[in-house]
Amino acid sequence: MHTPRRRFSLAGKLALLLFCVALAGIAATALFAWLLDNLALGASIGLLLCAPLALWAAHRYLAPQLSLFRALSGSVASFRDGDFSFSLARRSNDELDDLVAAHNELGDVLREERQSLFQRELLLDTVVQNTPVALLLAEPRGAIVYGNLAARQLFNDGRKVEGLHFAPLMARAPAPLRQALGEGRDRLFSFDYAGQEETYHLARRNFHLNGRVHALYLFKRLTAELSRQEVATWKKVIRVISHELNNSLAPITSLAHSGAELLRRGEPDKLGRIFDTIEERARHLHGFLRAYSSVAKLPAPVPEAVEWNTFLASLKAHYPFAQEATPPTTLAHFDPAQIEQALINMLKNAHESGSPPEQVTLAVHPLGRHLRIDVSDRGPGMSDAVLANALVPFYSTKRTGSGLGLALVREIAEAHGGRIALANREGGGLCVSLTLPA
Predict the structure, then answer these.
(1) What sequence ranges are listed for the domain HAMP (predicted)?
(2) Measured distance CA(331)–CA(349) in Å, rounded
């Protein structure tokens, strides 16, 4: 950007003013000294006459600068109040022009930023208002300060909810919704709405707004999505069951025909091998159906006090493992039969991973209000794709696997209020972690 050449700087103008005042004082002193023929008296009269002249010159010189400073002060106050429409004009070709130019550029930037912010806020409000997630924002005393269209439709028959109080509004809501709010955590709930059952997910978050803590409630309708997932799951279940039934029934049918043919030929001594194979396929089919039944009929856990050394000794009778850490001396509280089944599935997977048996380990770690049980191995681990799907029911990479082992562990963990996590180990292998409330 081209900067015009300055004729005088502020310092130059001030030096010129002082020079002119001094020159006028010398001239007045010389004039009165010559007229009165008395140097001292002439100097005194010249000084008295130059003082008003100096004040007048200073006022004339400083008046534009003082006016500019007042304008800048008022403009900055407007900026502070959010009004960025002010700009200043000055054409003196000195340093103050740079200040004015910087001020005007700042105003332009602030105006553009405010316009951009306004457009973004408008876009955000449009998105939030039209999202299918019902959203309510309540201030600390419970008054609702914001509700989108979905919230108005869900809670107030399409009317505005701003200004209403959260507690009375929720008192008119269905009982399952009130119960979900009372639990104080994110959760799913279902209730009858407009003549059909609807499933929602409740999430709540706290954040600071204008120096105060506000509560944000989000109610997401999941009915359609869950229905699609349910249909997809049933289709997968039917495919898996059909595949397993065919794998067992097809050879049984073939072997039964072969047995009948052997009897017809009078060769009953060869029937033993056929019956053994039929028994093996029937046993496999029975085990497969029992595994499916275990997921479908999982009862609610019945927690009881569990002593770790006794529990782990019983677990070792099913699958051996090395203990990495000394178990806690305090009692745990969980359903021992269900947790034992979960750990058996985890240990079974570890032994079937190809890991050396002596490197299959189990460790119990107290974590405050929770405890974590790690089952680790030194097998090949899992790829990212397998890790992402390992907990999905019926997903298996094993030729004879049902895909229900880890899915059952997940069901048991979540029934206890815990969770399961899988991670590849450094140096190879897999660690499956079961976290439970202590």
Answers:
(1) 70-115
(2) 27
